[in-house]
Specification:
Number of helices: 2
Helix content: 10-25%
Number of strands: 8
Low-confidence stretches: none
Strand content: 25-35%
Radius of gyration: 16 Å
Structural class: alpha/beta
Largest sheet: 4 strands, mixed
Order of helices and strands: EHEEEEHEEE
Distance between the termini: 30 Å
Shape: elongated
Strand order of the largest sheet: 1-4-3-2
Length: 136
Amino acid sequence: MLVQPYLFFDGRCEEALAFYGKAIGAKSRLVRFNESPEGHGPPAVDPANAEKIMHAHVVVGETAFMASDGECKGQAHFGGFSLSLTVADAAEAQRSFTALSEGGETVMPLSKTFFSSSFGMLKDRFGVHWMVMSPP
């Protein structure tokens, strides 16, 4: 079995994935609503959303998550979970934390803990919560 997060950006998916590509090296494969075979996509897609992302497979390091624009209503809600990013060392934690928090907000600044040489929490500009850490 495999469990992977599926994030719905409600109209900002392409922007978010470009940001994650720049911030943490995420690689994405995208399928737009207008690329689905006739009769196999979601019913009644608003023509204004035809270029929006129906499905994306996103790889970060050794892991993956999926993403979409969903209903394209413009207000994504990400609550009750965090994506946890474990990096090689404290310097990489600092770089990743700084990049992901650009335009977002720091929840807990990076600091040394009993379980990590560097650990911090943030909410990115899209509202996704992240925990960034490096090994002790």
